[in-house]
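Task 17 of the worksheet. Students: predict the tertiary structure of the chain below and write it out as structure tokens. Keep your answer in the requested format; marks are given for formatting as well as content.
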Amino acid sequence: MIIALLPWIIISSTALLVMLLTAIKRDHLYISCITSLGLFIALLTQTAQISLSESMIYENNLISINNTTALLSALLILLALVLSSLLYPWLKKLHEPSEEYYLLFLFATQGALVVAASSHFGSFFLGLELMSLSLVAMVAYVDKSSKALEAGIKYFVLSALASAFMLMAIAIIYLYSGTLAFSEILIQMSSSQLAVASDNNIVLSAAIVLLLVGVAFKLSLAPCHLWVADLFEGAPLASAAFLATLAKAAIFILLIKLFESTHWHQLNAVVSIVSMIAAASMLIGNLLALLQKNILRLLAYSSIAHFGYLLLAILAIAPSTPLSEQYSLSTEAAIFYLIAYLVTVLSIFAILMLLADSRQLQNFQISSFKGLFWHNPAAAIVLALLLLSLAGIPLTIGFVGKFYLTLVAVNSQLWWLLSVLIVSSIIGLFYYLRIILCLLEKTQPLPNTKPATVLNITILALISLAVIGLGVFPGQLALLIQRIVIS
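Model answer:
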């Protein structure tokens, strides 16, 4: 038990140590190093737990950690480690008290891990609230920014509303099944029961719909997406990066687990609602992104579309045949595309943080990127590469992810959703190319810019290697995911 929970213990201990050291003596660099070291050790222990010979690593009434959960938890910790390594120069530039931010960052990471490993609605809700409340403080952290305060209040109110929907759904599910454990709910939702429930049990369908509404708020899926652009624009850059990657990924990982372990596909009303949410998210996200002049707002609306794409893989998961080829392919596609999206988006935020730190980006208007190629070629080339990956252009990891989704849609005969995916991807190509054209446009030299440091160039090189390497040679990652899913 202790070994299985060791990554959680390490992160919690790191948070406690940061709290004590902050109370004794403030030292930003020291706290930053301790945070990164704690996350690095947690990553090593989490990765060491992945075993292809045993499917279940640890399980009790509240959490279950199998190989898939361990892999995705390791991904979450890796993202947190990369983001924490970028915090020091960014926070130093803000001239704000910085130590508390690391504490909130660790608490939010711990909450995300709990959500991803939950096997009980009780542990899920506790992890969700730990992550959400920490994020509220992270979003409103810059006290001199009215936009940050506004974004924090919006996130607090809407997060509370989403939690209320989820609590209502959990209460109805408990009324139906008499339990909050996912495995026991699965027993209650047997195929024979759902054959009747699909036509008559409106209450169960309503509970799942309420749960989906709460999840749609957390993932900013249409039509529960109106808050996300204001939040991305107003929140501090690191907080927006956490929200776009770790927070959304944790919820989606749990969604995969829930949809794998229940016979929800036999509830026709729920399938129709999820399909409509997926289609609306793909179209609305890309259409609204076309209208944006701020890159953070563009990324916010783009994230709506990408999680709409991911819902397509969710719709193809068939839990009634857990060892079937279609089951493993759908889950593999969802995980691969999730990894591709997270790596790409976090890399874009990393570049934005580096550019903001070097004073080469005074604001996040798309027009401020004009001529970046002529002032900072390395950053411009890598940023263009990442945008092409989000667009799904060949030789990038994003293309491989979309190929997986297309294959899953064809195998599952989700023809109309596949059509929406193709149309929305074409729409998305326009606004990604618009930014790339801005990068190549010639302008006057930028005043007071710092030259690129060795650290910045190293980070940009690693990002390029990851995006192109996994795009040209995706086989090893795909094989690892496949072996873990079917183990």
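Marker's comment: The beta strands are 56-59, 64-66. The longest strand covers residues 56-59.
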